[in-house]
Amino acid sequence: MAASATTGAKASAPAQQRAADAVGGAQSIFRVLRILKYVGAAPARGVGLTDVVRDVGLTPPTAHRMLSALLQEGFLSLNPRLKTYSLGRESYILGLAAESRHGIKAIAESAVLRLAQSTGDTSFLSVRSGHEAVCVDRKTGDFPIKILTLEVGHRRPLGVGAGSLALLAFLPNDDIDRVLARYDASAAPDLPSTDMLREDIAAARKNGYALNPGRIIPDMLGVGVPVFDREQHVVAALSVAAIRSRLSGARLADVVAALQRAASELSADLAPRF
């Protein structure tokens, strides 16, 4: 029996190693994908190795190895002067392929532009990506003070910002609970607490629109509404951001009405494809 047990233990060792390798391989894939998302949300100047180490949570050797692999495969490009990384040619090609299949930006562009023109302020189109909201389009109006806190490609935790809050607040309750369970208010100094998000979600559901009452920048307000598909699932959010004095009283009601009209029209436009 002892010999048989020993043989069994030896036989199981390769299987255990394969399982460990599989776990390690999956972790590497997740890390690479986090790097791509992080670089994609970065400013135009790109990000450096130290930024990736600090914000993605990798050791310098691991970050350097993964950045080098992404650079070699064309998914990242390197600015030789600044030593910063940006998305590369292959990322752009993948984006074009995804756009052809999920072209919500092209369908919604006229609606986002009309919102900016009619309100005079900055309008945004946002979509959900896991536990984050991604800005996929932005248009500016003719009011001299422009709110440019979000650039196309920028990500925020779901619930942070008017469009992001609209994406979260109108999800099913179970989905909201799962998102909030992973929400980390300590990740950045300007993030609202989980209790604040729950209050904002409750207010959005009651009012029919999401309001960012200056959570990120005190003098800036934002208002957003969800865009539903034909199954009444949230597929996007439209939002408008402006200085505080331009999103209060009767004008806030006018902007909400414009957003809701645009969202309804966009839902109808999306119906054949989503």
From TrEMBL:
PROSITE patterns: HTH_ICLR (PS51077), ICLR_ED (PS51078). Residues 90-272 form the IclR-ED domain. The keyword rRNA-binding does not apply. One of its GO terms (molecular function) is DNA binding. Keywords: DNA-binding, Transcription, Transcription regulation. It comes from the Bacteria. Gene3D superfamilies: 3.30.450.40, Winged helix-like DNA-binding domain superfamily/Winged helix DNA-binding domain. InterPro entries: GAF-like_dom_sf (IPR029016), HTH_MetabolicPath_Reg (IPR050707), Tscrpt_reg_IclR_C (IPR014757), Tscrpt_reg_IclR_N (IPR005471), WH-like_DNA-bd_sf (IPR036388), WH_DNA-bd_sf (IPR036390). GO terms for biological process: negative regulation of DNA-templated transcription. It holds the Pfam family IclR_C. Residues 26-89 form the HTH iclR-type domain. PANTHER family: HELIX-TURN-HELIX TRANSCRIPTIONAL REGULATOR, ICLR FAMILY, TRANSCRIPTIONAL REGULATORY PROTEIN. This is Transcriptional repressor IclR. It comes from Achromobacter animicus. The lineage of its organism: Bacteria, Pseudomonadati, Pseudomonadota, Betaproteobacteria, Burkholderiales.
